Amino acid sequence: MSSPDARLAAGPDGRPGMAPDTGIEPPVLSLRGIRKSFGDVEVLRGIDLDVRRHEVVALIGSSGSGKSTLLRTANLLETIDDGQVFLSGTDVSDPRVKLDAVRARIGVVFQHYNLFPHLSVLGNVTLAGRTVHRRGKAAAERQALELLDQVGLADKAREFPDRLSGGQQQRVAIVRAIATDPELLLLDEITSALDPELVGEVLELVRTLAQGGSTILMATHEMAFARDVAHRVVFLDGGLIVEQGTPERLLNHPEQERTRKFLTRFSGTGLTPPA
Amino acid sequence: MTNSAPALRVPSEIELDRRLYRRRQNGKSVAIALVSTLVFAALVWLLVVNTPGWTAVQQSFFNLDVAISAFPRVIEGLWLNIRVLFFASIGVLIVSLLLAVIRTLRGPVFFPLRALATGYTDLFRGVPLLIVLYLVGYGVPGLGLFPRMPAEFWGTVALILTYSAYVSEVFRAGIEAVHPSQRLAARALGLSHAQTMRKVVLPQAVRKVTPALMNDFVAMQKDVGLISVIGAIDAVRAAQIETAASYNFTPYVLAGLLFVLLAWPTIRLTDWYSARMRRREQMGSIV
């Protein structure tokens, strides 16, 4: 495994307070003491997490553990009750910061694709480039076609989303998210709504992005994929980070009882940790 | 060698039998519908023609000579109705979209605007159009604020005021019917609230409510006839003048027929469009 990678030497696993090391480049994303409640339910109970440049971090945990909420707080689609969110060193949870400009620097891919049904594939991919980043129509379309070509969907550029399979739609959604060269990519269980036979093509695309150096924070139920692609796996339970580490260590030799218990549910995948 | 082209495959005995049965049933249904329609029409016709006053009614409502002589004037009036309809439609679209968007704004900053828009729609959906016409047609020019305008101008304003209140509710329903995940996706891309509205929400909302909008358009097509009450010489007013001149009600029937003809294409288009939408939504299902 690539665990001794310098950018992964972030500090002791699972311990909060891995403050952005001064002197070197700040993490792309840095969450500090994030808290979030919905009514009486506290979904996030103080989360500290750093994602460094070119790092791929996988969030795992059962449904309701706060994975999706955490992703949404990261690009401020969800207001936080306490804590701070830093994007490349800037505190973007400061109310004086322009949220639209911050969100434009982060790409998000949703579980249900959320493509715009009234726009063609090309329209979906170029919307942000043209309206937010003020790129010309020709330039935006040229770049979009290039990206679509890379993911094998150039021939679908003029189609509307409802004519595509789930896997194709999700690949378009990924292209839409990366078309504006975001600093950070957030993937929210992007294969959960897909038929098993379509999962592969989407994961293959994410693998390519990861190898290309994209910075990715993803919530996932695909343990095998997390092991394969992620530099670090973070196990979330009850709104807290229970444990984190290299996929090798966390998935094969979890230290915490709760992690072990969660992972046994994936025993069918051959990832059962030794009892 | 086997030929796998589906077009050349001969259906099974059972399927052929089913098709024959369906064809027979279809033929039977059409025949029944045709006969019952004819019988009903004949009955109504006989009933009306045999009423004691029919000859008098025919003379004063369905007089071809009167219709022909009234035609030029009534059609000229209808042309005014069409022009009023054109400008009123554009006005309604703009004002109602504005109202709908204002009503969906969130946040305390927009409270006064929102309250104003809500008050407006409440008020103008409640007041009869006729009263709005009188108030605008006679009241507003009385203020002396505006240069002298023809009656049809104030009629158009009154139509816009009333119909915008209704149509804004249609738009609002459409805006709220766009799934929140669409807004989420747009905001995640960095689009502002206004950009999200313009590029993502409104285009989808308008598609959803097009049949309802067309229905309101049909309603307005005949309500433009009401501008005659403030003195505009439209089709209804022209018919009234012709009726007074000839002591015969045929011009009203003529104007009514012309309004039907005016509305008919839109009515059919609405039906066709909603049928198409329904087909798209339940593709492959029988019920």
From TrEMBL, chain B:
Membrane topology reported for the UniProt record = Multi-pass membrane protein
Keywords of this protein's UniProt record, alphabetized?
Amino-acid transport, Cell membrane, Membrane, Transmembrane, Transmembrane helix, Transport
Write down a Pfam family by its short name: BPD_transp_1
Residues in domain ABC transmembrane type-1? Answer: 78-270
UniProt KW ATP-binding keyword = no
Give the InterPro entries listed for this entry.
AA_ABC_transptr_permease_3TM, ArtM/GltK/GlnP/TcyL/YhdX-like, MetI-like, MetI-like_sf
Q: From the record, give the transmembrane residue ranges.
A: 29-48, 82-102, 123-146, 252-270
In Swiss-Prot or TrEMBL terms, this protein is called ABC transporter permease
The species is Microterricola pindariensis
Task: Give the organism's phylogenetic lineage.
Answer: Bacteria, Bacillati, Actinomycetota, Actinomycetes, Micrococcales
